[in-house]
Design brief:
single chain; alpha+beta; Outer membrane efflux proteins (OEP); 2 domains; 4 strands
């Protein structure tokens, strides 16, 4: 066998042996259960300490001390199942980058002609063997690789942005649960006090010291307090289930919160100018859009370069029926008479314009959202201060009615009304505090800041994407 045939055979063997094999990944109940099983506490603690994220900071997980809003945020990023499918996009981007750098395969052709009729005496079988390669991909390779690299970075930042939103949602859920538990404690305390007072009123009514109207008022107050408590109990249970879902834990998993979580009474927010400064270099989704736009720029450049006529180079070896062998080379050049990639170039340019407009709109929406949330925070500050001031007056009124009731100068119904107003106002204050916290977290999201009271944050730093815990 000649060296030419040996070389061709070696190319075929290398190409075949380099192929990957198929390995099935079954989708059954056991594999799903394994995927849904939360990691052990030691693995979670290690992952939380080694977290690398543009905005989230590593934390120390102490499950005995309970979860804080910050630790809940990190825990949600580590094990929330909704983020797993999102992180799979990173594998797709890496595969696209790998594909963009690959060169086209050479083409091997072979033909065989055997003498079949006519004067075939002294003839031999004729054959043709050729090896050719399309050089078109060499021209656009650099632009395609650049586009894929930028797209991969954009995907990483988009994933980090989604992780940040899940983290902030989990943080909000913790504060909401704290507010609900405090509201429930207030209403439960009132329910218990009213139940005790109802027994006293019943005894007084039997002794003729109180009227039937007083007894009806006491029974109505107990019924209202109990109904309010049942509503809050239901909301608290639902909030715990929602927190479990955000954390990626089974519904029945018990959650212990830290005992010192406070709800603020006022939010000192920076100005709109301060929050907006450096916004486009700090918010992860905006930086990702910038990289996506840069990737599309490279794609447009690749489409322009693809107008270059396709050039196919090859070598061939042949033998005719007269047993005369030949060696030669061939050149194929596409003539761009009709198709000069006009449609592809127009499509890529339109995509670039769409990305540009999308980015401009996202910046506009971010600035408008910051302004709206700032106005809402200032309004909530005033509402909380007003409600707290009103609460002091309601408490004094309730104390006055209690004194008057004990001296027989007020009726039970008026006292219960004053008492209920105090409790309801306290619940309203807690609700306003919860709304203020939600506004603060929304401002953190809109401004791309980990905390509003921190100094001027740096632009998005280099980071290692969050890895799944095995």
């Amino acid at each position: 066998m000649s060296n030419f045939f040996k070389s061709i055979s070696l190319l075929i063997i290398v190409g075949v042996t380099g192929c990957q094999s198929y390995h099935p990944v079954p989708l059954d109940s056991s594999s799903v259960e394994r995927a849904l099983k939360p990691p052990d506490e030691q693995a979670l603690q290690l992952a939380a300490q080694q977290l690398h994220h543009p905005l989230l900071e590593p934390v120390q997980l102490d499950f005995n001390a309970g979860l804080s809003p910050d630790t809940a945020a990190v825990l949600a990023v580590l094990i929330n199942p909704s983020l797993r499918a999102l992180r799979d996009e990173r594998g797709l981007a890496q595969a696209q980058l790998q594909q963009a750098g690959l060169l086209p395969n050479p083409q091997l052709t072979y033909s065989l002609d055997q003498p079949a009729f006519g004067s075939t005496a002294g003839t031999v079988s004729a054959y043709g063997l050729g090896l050719s390669w399309d050089t078109q991909q060499l021209i656009t390779r650099s632009a395609r690789v650049q586009a894929a690299q930028r797209q991969q970075k954009a995907v990483d930042l988009n994933i980090a942005w989604q992780e940040w939103q899940v983290a902030e949602t989990a943080k909000t859920a913790v504060y909401q649960l704290v507010a609900l538990e405090q509201q429930t404690a207030l209403v439960t305390g009132m329910d218990q006090r009213l139940a005790k007072n109802l027994d006293l009123v019943r005894q007084a009514a039997k002794a003729g010291q109180m009227t039937g109207l007083d007894l009806s008022a006491a029974e109505t107050a107990v019924s209202q307090a109990r109904a309010n408590r049942l509503v809050l109990d239901k909301q608290t249970i639902q909030q715990r289930l929602e927190l479990n879902r955000l954390l990626g834990l089974p519904p029945e998993s018990p959650i212990k919160l830290q005992a010192d979580i406070l709800l603020p009474t006022q939010l000192d927010v920076p100005s709109a100018l301060t929050l907006g400064a450096g916004l486009e270099q700090r918010r992860l989704d905006l930086v990702a859009l910038q990289l996506g736009y840069a990737s599309q720029e490279a794609t447009v450049r690749a489409a322009i370069l693809a107008q270059f006529p396709k050039l196919n180079l090859g070598i061939n070896r042949a033998r005719d029926t007269g047993n005369v062998g030949t060696m030669g080379f061939g050149v194929g050049l596409e003539l761009p008479v009709f198709d000069r990639s006009q449609g592809v170039i127009a499509q890529e340019r339109a995509t670039r314009q769409r990305l540009f407009d999308e980015y401009v709109n996202r910046v506009f929406e971010a600035r408008a959202e910051i302004a709206r949330l700032l106005a809402e925070a200032l309004s909530l500050n005033e509402q909380i201060q007003t409600a707290m001031a009103a609460n002091a007056g309601l408490e004094r009124l309730e104390q006055a009615y209690r004194t008057a009731l004990n001296s027989g100068q007020a009726d039970v119904l008026s006292y219960y009304t004053a008492w209920n107003n105090v409790t309801q106002n306290r619940v309203a204050v807690l609700t306003l505090k919860e709304q203020l916290l939600q506004t603060r977290i929304a401002l953190e999201l809109a401004s791309g800041r980990y905390r509003l009271d921190e100094g001027a944050p740096s632009p998005v730093p280099a980071f290692s994407p969050t890895k799944e815990i095995k």
